[in-house]
Amino acid sequence: MANLFLYLALFLLWFMLFYHIFLMLGGYLEFLKHDKVVKKFSENKEELPMVSILIPAHNEQLVIENTLQAMVNLDYPKDKLEVIPINDNSNDDTGFIVDEYAKRYPFIRPLHTKPPTGGKGKSGALNQGLKHSTGEVIVVYDADNTPEPEAVYHLVLGLNNDKKAAAVVGKFRVLNATENLLTRFINIETLTFQWLAQAGRWHWFKMTTIPGTNFAIRRSVIEKLGGWDEKAISEDTELSFRVYNAGYHIRFFPAAITWEQEPETLKVWWKQRMRWAQGNQYVIFKFLTQLRKLNRKVRMDLFYFLFTYLFFFGGILVSHLIFILNLIFDLELLIGNVSIILLVTGFLLFLVEVCLALSLEKGQLNLVNALHVVFMYFLYSQMWVILVLSAFYREAKRVLLNQEVKWYKTERFNPQQNKQTIIENSEKRTSER
């Protein structure tokens, strides 16, 4: 019996490893042609639409000023731009800061929410902001984001040139990537996700997933879909599924870049990633119950998420468990020394796909990051295994006990230490242009 479970676990693991290599190849091919796509799109002089930028903000006094300053610096016609910071039932100075900016810049139009409509989480805040917006295109940024000046223009450029796209998503970079070992891991994880899962899926299947920030969606589409699901704590994944099921697609357009702050402590990382994992599991089981009503693309994406959060991590857990039990009891495993070869080969495949992703970002493929990739395999990846298992338990408990979903707002850190990074990145981009 142990051999059967081990073979099944190895099949699941290797299937995912080869699939990721396939996606990473697609991401690389997409990278090679992206500059030509941007140039072609830029030649289209179609009139720019009115844009509404929604910024949900609950107790964001540490970061909201930098975000609003980034909005001021956007290279988009201000007469066609409205920025709506949604001060969602904050009890700090968030409301004061956004009001001060609104006094100086007429295109910044704050929305202050209070219970019963306010304080329900990001989805609720976005729905309130949508009601007060007027733009043909809705853009969303988190309150810790500092998009590059041309980010919104590039998001709109993608929509103007792809009429079948309901939404366009950009790329996000880690502002505090060098703060400590954890943020270095997150930086590598972020870049790999975008070039592997986002760019790779877009290249092969014309599919990608709406992230929580730095995306644009047509107003007509989001209104047709009824806004954001306020029960979903991974509102971005849930919205992506509904967009695809409505017959649209979502374009990945990495020319639109934003910089965001990532967790700097394990406690904050755990709570944020727990929300992601539990939220994605909610989405998986929500749409599994509607399987017959889903179109081919949604079923395909549902399978990808189901495989990632259930089968793949399940395979890792089973293989770990069998390995530990075999140290205590003789399980008479037949695989023998082949397991060592598979282990080493799997590790090398992991290194190849992650390093290829890093090579697509200037200055990211270096000796320091390569060493961190090695540590990630044995440390950070195993943390994810434990987290997904914990998230599955919590989501199952929530469903069985009919508990209310609680939104966790990621704790922010003082961004003053990151100002030099912002300045350096801005000077680098200016010199490259």
Main attributes?
transferase, globular, Nucleotide-diphossugar_trans, eight-stranded mixed β-sheet, membrane, single chain, 433 residues, Beta-monoglucosyldiacylglycerol synthase, glycosyltransferase activity, alpha/beta
Walk me through what this model shows.
- This is Beta-monoglucosyldiacylglycerol synthase.
- Belongs to the glycosyltransferase 2 family.
- GO terms for molecular function: glycosyltransferase activity.
- By secondary structure, the protein is α/β, with parallel strands linked by helices.
- Helix content is about 60%, strand content about 10%.
- It contains 13 helices and eight strands.
- β2, α3 and β3 form a beta-alpha-beta unit.
- α9 crosses α10.
- About 5% of the residues have low confidence.
List the helices and strands in order.
HEHEHEHEEHEHEHHEHHHHH
The overall average pLDDT, rounded, is: 89
How would a textbook summarize the main sheet?
Answer: 8 strands, mixed
In whole angstroms, how far apart are the ends?
Answer: 62 Å
The number of helical runs is: 13
The strand order across the widest sheet is: 3-2-1-4-7-6-8-5
Tell me the overall shape.
globular
Query: How much strand content do the residues show?
Result: 5-15%
Q: How would you classify the helix and strand content by structural class?
A: alpha/beta
Percent helix? 55-70%
Radius of gyration: 22 Å
- How many strands appear in the DSSP assignment? 8
Which consecutive residue ranges, at least 5 long each, have pLDDT under 50? 417-427
